[in-house]
Design brief:
Elements (H helix, E strand, L loop, with lengths): L1 H12 L5 H42 L3 E5 L5 E2 L5 H5 L4 E16 L2 E10 L3 H5 L5 E4 L10 E5 H7 L4 H4 L3 E6 L9 H4 E12 L3 H6 E5 H8 L4 E2 L1 E6 L5 H10 L5 E5 H4 L1 H39 L1 H9 L4 H36 L19 H38 L1
Parallel strand pairs: 4-9, 6-8
Antiparallel strand pairs: 1-11, 1-12, 2-10, 3-4, 3-7, 3-11, 5-8, 6-9, 7-8
Helix pairs in contact: 1-14, 2-12, 2-14, 2-15, 12-14, 12-15, 13-15, 14-15
């Protein structure tokens, strides 16, 4: 293998008799480098988006959600909280009451999803960092406070109680009452001060508002019951394994789901977009490989005399074939290495300096995360395509050229 590699390396860097061969070879290296860099950047961008989405959803949804298989709530005495807390990797759990209610502020109304959470919930989940106006305090000794999603606040034309001195009216359906029979008796209403505004993403900002769980339990008559329980686990714990252990100790009719299962559409959409992007860029690499074939064909024509001489000196056809096969792999490898370096450099600059800004986004700069597995995968894709589309053509062309050169000598 040393002799074919030595000759292939010489052919790659040595000056050819025809400048067009150098040009085509250079174009092939540049195209492969460009697409390789693009794949690294795009995959790193997807990693950044995935991490950002996961961070956003993890702040609003627990790692594991314990809820009813049917119905809207579960009795708290049906859960063995001591056994759940004893599970390996358990950190903390939060009781949550969630229900659609009718909000009234002044002369405006709209339906929103009320999420009643305990004290300390916002700091424990990181939601306090999403408060951009007001305070993350949900209650004090004197009163309860609500924290509205940004779009909920806009549609109600609401504001902080300290500015408007006007409470938000929450109209919640009474348990066991049908709206069609008695609209007045089917709802119970309570006022609450608006203490803050949060902004996470369009989905949560337009649907949710947060209240103390005692306020939600009182207005919903959910005494001794919760809509679901959010369980937080340690970062290095396998969620699926923790879920299986937790499910084994739950009563019939109560299930445990991960936040990935709850938001499966979002995560699957990201994976599908990632896969489609990889396929598109791989197709572009395939086109670049055809440039390599053109370069190899012209190189073999240029070095036909060398092929004939080496063959007459005893070099078998297999060795000559390897020379040009390795030539193609060297061109691909050189382009891939340059592309990986450029892609990693661009991602590093984006992460440290911020080359691409996000106007009006959740973060100031487009997030990117470089992962070693992606770098290795991109390199393997480039080399696999080069391997598949170099060996067969080189095999056939080398044999035919050697036969033609031998015939000429005769």
């Amino acid at each position: 293998m040393r002799f074919p590699f030595y000759i292939a390396r010489r052919y790659l860097f040595a000056k050819k008799s025809r400048n067009v061969i150098n040009l085509i070879t250079g174009i092939s290296v540049v195209v492969i480098a460009f697409v390789t860099a693009a794949m690294v950047v795009v995959l790193s961008a997807f990693n950044g988006i995935d991490a950002l989405v996961d961070d956003l959803y993890s702040s609003f949804d627990g790692d594991i959600i314990i809820g009813p298989e049917r119905g809207k709530s579960i009795p708290m005495d049906s859960l063995d909280l001591d056994a759940i807390q004893a599970l390996d990797g358990y950190l903390v759990h939060h009781e949550v009451i969630e229900e659609n209610v009718l909000l009234t502020f002044g002369d405006r109304q709209r339906v929103a999803k009320m999420k009643g959470v305990p004290d300390g919930y916002l700091k424990a989940t990181g939601l306090d960092e999403s408060i951009f106006q007001g305070s993350d305090l949900l209650s004090d000794e004197e009163s309860f406070r609500a924290i509205l999603g940004y779009k909920v606040m806009l549609e109600l034309d609401a504001g902080l109680f300290s500015e408007t001195l006007q409470p938000l009216i929450v109209n919640a359906p009474r348990m066991g009452k049908k709206i069609s029979r008695s609209r007045e008796k089917a709802f119970q209403s309570e006022g609450i001060m608006v203490g803050g505004i949060f902004s996470i993403n369009m989905e949560y900002d337009s649907e949710y508002f947060l209240v103390p769980i005692d306020f939600a339990r009182d207005i919903m008559d959910y005494f001794g019951r919760s809509t679901f329980i959010e369980v937080e686990v340690e970062e290095d714990i396998n969620l699926e394994e923790f879920q299986r252990e937790l499910t084994a100790m739950l009563a019939p009719g109560i299930i445990a789901t991960t936040r990935y299962e709850k938001n499966a559409v979002i995560y699957k959409a990201n994976e599908s977009e990632r896969l489609v992007t990889i396929l598109i860029l791989s197709f572009i690499i395939l086109i670049a490989v055809f440039n390599i074939l053109a370069s190899l064909t012209m190189l073999m024509l240029d070095k036909q005399h060398d092929l004939s001489m080496l063959h007459s000196m005893g070099a078998p056809v297999k060795t000559l074939r390897r020379i040009f096969f390795l030539e193609g792999m060297l061109i691909s490898g050189l382009g891939a290495i340059i592309g990986l370096g450029v892609g990693i450099l661009l991602c590093y600059l984006q992460d440290t300096v911020g080359l691409v800004r996000l106007q009006g986004g959740i973060v100031d700069f487009y997030p990117v995360i470089i992962k070693l597995r992606d770098v290795v995968m991109v390199f393997c894709i480039v080399m696999a395509i080069a391997l598949a589309f170099s060996w067969i053509p080189v095999n056939r062309m080398t044999r035919s050229m050697i036969v033609e050169a031998s015939d000429r000598k005769r």
